[in-house]
Amino acid sequence: MLRFISIYIVMAMITWQSVKSLPHPPATTEAPFKQTYDNKFDNIDLDELLGQERLLKNYVKCLESTGPCTPDGKMLKETIPDAMATDCSKCTPKQKYGSEKVTHFLIDNRPEDWKRLEKIYDPAGTYRIAYLARKSEQQEKDLLITTTEENNDMKNA
Question: Mean pLDDT in the chain?
Answer without folding.
Answer: 81
